[in-house]
Amino acid sequence: MEKLDLYYDRVDGNIYHEGLASEIPDRISQPLLQRRVESIIGRRGLKASYNTGKSYMKPLLNTLHQKNKKESLDLMLKHLSIRGFGSLKCTELKKDYMKIQVNNCFNALPQPKSDKKVCFEMAGILAACGEVLMGEGMDCMETECITQGNPYCEFHVFKHGLRIKEKKDAEIKPIPEKEENLVKHNAFHDPYKGETIFEDNSSLILPQGYLAHYQRELESLLGERPVRDMEYILTKKSSLTTANTIKNKKLAGYLHTPTNLLLREMVKKSRMRGFGVPLIQEFYPGKPYLRLIVKNSFNAHGYSKARKPVCYRMAAQCAGFGTALFNKDMDCIETRCRATGDSCCEFRVYANPHRRTQSGRSHKRSIQEMANLTSL
Ligand SMILES: [Zn+2]
Ligand SMILES: [Zn+2]
Questions:
Q1: How many domains does the chain have?
Q2: How far is ligand 1, taken at its centre, from the CA of residue 143, in Å?
């Protein structure tokens, strides 16, 4: 295991890895979302994963460019491994072609065995590597996948012959000068597995704005409303699972009350992972209501003039924690958002009068409703 340094900025809530603002989701959450998006809208949802990997990792990979091609590539592959994407190796490098083997590919992990290749986000990232390396338009295709029983995933990166289009919203925020505001956190990298452990979880270190960019890619495919509903329902479910796990730890002898513990953990988790700084504004014990503001919400990065609030995943996280907190089905609405020009985002968590509990059946039904909605 190698030690990695992460720095948390107490003033603006950014978390920095190697001098660049980052967000650190669980290793499994992004591929899990990809799988669920695919189950709802079909294979076309995979385009959002590919495009995000390609356009959002490219500015970062550009900073690693060296004169020597081989050195450049080695540096990029090592860097991707440190970020937790897997253990990567180049097995063939030509003028306008390369072959990359990925052991323990993050993209394949939560997938059941299938007859399809699933690593579209990784393919996008490797296409970006190819473009930085060759200086021309490249694409990437997965040819073997762990999900098909292969010991590793294999990718072919090749020239597509079109002009390169650069996306303007993918920018890298470098570390600020004021060191006195920075708090150091540790993460640990396993170079053999290509995994990074942060806060006891295998995690991905993504450039800040990556997850919001994925949301915009989905929006460009499906429109705002279906994406809002989909991200909200899916994230609420996983956030509720996380919150319930924390709550059960209480039974193992924690001193705080479950309510305090959950609120503290929600705030801590969000800050540590670079998702934003939540501040509780209204909370009365016994009343199922919570109002909070979130500074620097990860969900709003890169949006400049949105007409409506865009932090669906942040709202869903609050709803999931709220549900565990109050022991009843809670929902969350975002009432102010940085994406629409406010200084921070504001969320209100309230008891949903129409649903008593979020049972498995009602969840299945909402997924079905969404499938109908998105098949327009
Ligand atoms: Zn794969
Ligand atoms: Zn917002």
A1: 2
A2: 8
